[in-house]
Recover the amino acids of this structure.
């Protein structure tokens, strides 16, 4: 069963004066993970749909999904499933939500999050002036992020069945010709 | 004197990446004299005839055809789906359309989940196919069974 990345949040200041994408970075620990769902936190009054993405760097979107705030429960992570993606141990990734000036409110970078699992490290807040293209570090402290966002994941080592069959990669660690 | 050749450059990367999900300089993840499981190359999920080709160290013509051995260490990340491995030693490989001369083939019908070494000892006939020890390539093909 997949688990949420973030369990505890201390929400910061609301704002809606930016058009672009905002979110966070995170670094996978010693085990590869499979991400199955992405979420955006809903503030009361939010009604738009937001594109939430995972990126491995500038202009490298790995997964993207539209998450509708309309009809969702206030003050919760609103999840949407994605075609599962594999994130590699030791690699830093970025998660963003699209936001619009004077549109839905989101929480500013004074929002603190803490992970449920020490095996994945929370980074800090990042933003994009052009969604899916540039990535910019907001420059504040670790665990301080925008919105906030979240995702659900499995460790590769624990998945099985149909999901596992999507991630059955072959590997080779050495090759030599001796004589 | 014994000679050992290792990968020295990528020739065809295909859909492979390394342990850090990078898609260049993959050979550096499989070139150790003592195999190291901490770095590796990896195919896409559920590979179907997925090809990676690297050039290996230039060797001196050994004259002897005894004890020519191709050895690899391979595995799968989940082990829940059978994946076969074929490694060809080719001379004068250029690209997938011009694969040069097939020298020898290591075939493993189903690779183990955990990293396991597989080897193929070349026959005298296979060794005698080599006319240029300075231009040999390993063509790796993983494919789900």
């Amino acid at each position: 069963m997949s688990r949420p990345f973030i369990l505890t949040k201390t929400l910061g200041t609301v704002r809606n004066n930016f058009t672009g994408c905002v979110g966070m970075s995170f670094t996978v620990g010693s085990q590869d993970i499979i991400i199955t769902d992405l979420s955006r936190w809903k503030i009361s009054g939010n009604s738009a749909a937001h594109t939430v993405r995972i990126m491995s760097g500038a202009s490298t979107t790995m997964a993207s999904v539209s998450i509708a705030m309309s009809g969702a429960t206030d003050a919760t992570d609103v999840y949407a499933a994605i075609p599962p993606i594999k994130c590699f141990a030791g690699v830093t990734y970025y998660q963003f939500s699209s936001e619009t000036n004077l549109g839905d409110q989101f929480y500013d970078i004074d929002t603190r999050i803490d992970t449920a699992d020490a095996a994945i490290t929370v980074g800090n807040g990042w933003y994009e002036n052009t969604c899916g293209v540039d990535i910019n570090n907001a420059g504040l402290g670790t665990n301080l992020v925008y919105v906030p966002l979240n995702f659900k994941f499995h460790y590769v080592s624990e998945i099985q069945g149909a999901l596992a069959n999507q991630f059955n990669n072959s590997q080779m660690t050495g090759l030599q010709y001796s004589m | 004197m014994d000679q050992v050749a290792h990968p020295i450059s990528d020739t065809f990367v295909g859909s492979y990446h390394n342990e850090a999900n990078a898609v260049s300089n993959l050979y550096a993840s499989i070139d150790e004299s003592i195999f190291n499981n901490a770095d590796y190359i990896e195919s896409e999920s559920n590979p179907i005839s997925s090809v990676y080709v690297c050039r290996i160290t230039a060797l001196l013509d050994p004259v002897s055809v005894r004890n020519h051995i191709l050895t690899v260490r391979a595995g799968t990340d989940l082990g829940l789906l059978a994946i076969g491995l074929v490694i060809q030693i080719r001379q004068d490989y250029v690209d997938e359309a011009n694969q040069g001369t097939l020298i020898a083939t290591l075939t493993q019908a189903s690779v183990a989940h955990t990293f396991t070494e597989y080897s193929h000892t070349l026959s005298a006939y296979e060794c005698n196919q080599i006319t240029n020890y300075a231009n040999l390539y390993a063509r790796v093909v993983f494919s789900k069974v």
User: Anything to note?
Assistant: Chain A has a mean pLDDT of 91. The longest strand of chain A covers residues 77-87. Chain A has one helix and 15 strands. Helices of chain A lie at 161-165.
